[in-house]
Amino acid sequence: MTIATVRRRGPLVALFAAGALSQLGNAITTIAIPLIVLQTTGSAWATGLAGTAATAPLLLGGVLGGVVVDRLGFRRASIIADIASGLTIAAIALLLAVDALPFWLLLALVFLSNLLDAPGRAARASQLPELSVLAGLSLEKSTAVDATVSRMSMMLGAAAAGGLIAVVGAGSTLLVNAALFAVAVVVTALFVPVMALDHTDATPDDAGLGWRGITAGIRFVWTTPVARAMVGLLIITNLLDVAAFSVLNPIAATTYSPDGAAYGAMTAFFAGGALIGAALSPLIPARWPRRTVIVTLFILTGPGIFALFALQPPLPVLLGGIAAAGLLAGPLNPILDTALLRVIPPTIRARALGALSTGVAAGMPIGTLLAGAGVDLLGLAAAYLVGGAAYLVTIVVLGSGRQWRSIDSLR
Q1: Tell me, what DSSP letter sits at residue 195?
Q2: CA pair distance 106, 174, nearest whole angstrom
């Protein structure tokens, strides 16, 4: 590899590295904060409230943060997001160390820490097209690497959090977390350049901070058939996925081990399979129609795994099926992300991505509520069967139609 090649690919590698550090930090926060709440309050209700404080700003930041990102610039916005996360996490750790962290202040800091997470992720993802061109890599390969790095960081972050908390405690672990965000800021500031964007499609209203500017991303998604089709499909499938992973699967795990320890194995096997699947996604032949690939992968991973859980097979068989489902699910994000990044105008890229992530996340609370009610009313196996049937109908209905025709031209 020549020095010129290293220089061209360096910014993209730096973007992946900064993203990995930020994802590591978020994974550690996800593990450490609930433990801190339990240690300081001893209340399960308070822990749930802290979870709400962590997830609510994701919806708000996704919609409103995008316009700020598009105005500030992708690189600057990603730096500010990491600085905000690092400072709030460090504040939690330091206040905890001096016993000056009342619960209300902890909730406020958790809220602020997560407020810029969605805009930060959108800002980082928005830099992929231009940096991929600079690096001489296809957008398909870049999104595959991005998905692989993201999944690996979340896995390693969760594992590291458990080890650090056991050795040094949750408060000190958060200081390590804050340091990760600081390094991410340095990497972005030093090695990720500001890329020129094409503003030919921009209008004064869309570029401004007024109502049309704030809603530009939402309007783009609604008026662009392929983007609208993706969002409709992902809202329902994500709702069902969250219902399974957050409610049904933990209950199913207790049938294999009294303490539910099998749930950790289920999560790890799916994550490992998805990691490999994302890494291998560029190997999918380019001649295969992308809509056919998307629908096929969704059917195999969604209804298939719901049906497997409903059968309650021996744990080794179940874990093998979960790993296979993860492997097949891995390519979905790179394929969909590539299409979206190609169709979204650069000037509203962060707003459109924020609107997409908010719409997809909006169904999560509904999914968990429906899953809990379904188990109470129907029983676990029947709840899985109903969920799998709903998954299949969603894919068949929302995965077909003329709105998908343009997706093969977005490669």
Answers
A1: P
A2: 13
